Amino acid sequence: MSTKRPSATVRWLDADEERAWRALRRMMIAVQSRTAHDLAAIGLSDPDYEVLSTLSERPGHTSTLREQAAKMGWSRSRLSRHATRMEARGLVRREPDPDDGRGCYLVLTERGLETLGDAAPTHLESVRRHVIDRLSPADLSALESIASKLEEPA
Asked: Which Pfam families match (predicted)?
């Protein structure tokens, strides 16, 4: 077992930074778990909703598995396993990708589109209840600004 000690060049968090970091973590966990709980009550997981909503916005309701996995921050194999479960429920189907012999397209089915349409009001109410309606317009603007900074690679 290694007992490596951090180097002297480690920039430890000061008290304000530590509080901010912990607050961010608690916020991300709380919002994600609450909105996921609300989706679960109608039979969808958070990843199900992400796949369905993303595909609904794409031309032809189609995306490559690679693009979808990148958007979700998942590996292709993890998304492929999840897509298999969604396929079994008739929410998506796969089609071969002629440009990538190992890849495929994910296509939103009519049932998937109907499921999304049925779930969207519940999800939007959840987002409003857990986030939007609890913040002022200035808070929302600040949140958007902070989120865009944190989305960029360091």
From this structure: MarR_2 (PF12802)
Which residues does 80 contact at the CB level (< 8 Å), separation at least 6?
65
CA distance 113 to 137: 32
Q: Which helix (H) or strand (E) holds 92?
A: strand 92-97
Cα 112 to Cα 115: distance, rounded to the nearest angstrom: 5
- Nearest Cα neighbor of 83 from 97, 98, 69, 96 is 69
CB atoms within 10 A of CB 74: 17
Q: Say how many Å lie between the first and final Cα of the chain, rounded.
A: 31
Best CA proximity match to 119, nearest among 32, 46, 31 = 46
Higher-pLDDT residue of 6, 106? 106
Tokens (6 digits) for 41: 């009550």
pLDDT of 120 above 60: yes
The pLDDT tens digits for 9-66 are 899 999 999 999 999 999 999 999 999 999 999 999 999 999 999 999 999 999 999 9
Distance in angstroms (rounded) separating the CA atoms of residues 128 and 105: 32
